[in-house]
Design a protein that fits this description.
The chain is of the alpha+beta class and 177 residues long. 15% of the residues lie in helices and 36% in strands. The radius of gyration is 16 Å and the shape is globular.
């Protein structure tokens, strides 16, 4: 079990630095902790990040639901740690409510492959975790490295569920039950 050491004494550590220009673009969710706001998502989960001129980031999350429809949530992120740019806050509520602090959720980059091929994102309370990649399928070694990065920061990686994409999702849906 990798849940030992100083990472458990407090908040998880983020990566030392995130180049938001390189981080921007399209990501596929490879795995996540089950959570209430994604309970309808059955497959094809993606996130797209695009920098705005004011320094905030447009966030568009998409997923396929049981009916086969693609649904989307549009939000905005702001950097909360300008030194590392690894701690952000994300809001999916309307802008006129943005003054309410509880509408902003933590988005901390906890692991990042040097070429930005995969990322591990979580929350300081370790209740939420996502593994993202630039492609829907990742090599086993990359997946294990991402899980290891999360475990090193005290996340119970046994809770992760893999996300299905494309043909993989279609095959599962067509399988006899």
């Amino acid at each position: 079990m990798a849940c030992s050491g100083p990472a458990l004494a407090g908040e998880p550590r983020t990566v030392e630095s995130v180049d938001l220009g390189r981080y921007g673009g399209h990501w596929y969710e490879v795995a996540r902790f089950p959570n209430p706001f994604q309970r309808r998502c059955t497959a094809d989960v993606t996130a797209t990040y695009e920098a705005r001129p004011d320094g905030t980031i447009d966030v568009v999350n998409r997923c396929r639901v049981a009916s086969g429809a693609l649904v989307e949530a549009v939000g905005v992120a702001r950097v909360t740690d300008p030194k590392t740019r690894a701690k952000l806050a994300v809001r999916f509520a309307p802008a006129f409510l943005s003054f309410l602090p509880f509408l902003w959720g933590d988005y901390w980059v906890l692991g990042l492959e040097p070429d930005y091929r995969w990322a591990v994102v979580g929350t300081p309370d370790r209740e939420y975790l996502w593994i993202l990649a630039r492609t829907p399928d990742v090599a086993d070694a990359d997946y294990r490295a991402a899980l290891s990065a999360a475990a090193a920061e005290g996340f119970d990686v046994g809770r992760t569920v893999r996300t299905q994409h494309g043909a993989q999702a279609a095959a599962t849906a067509a399988a006899p039950r």
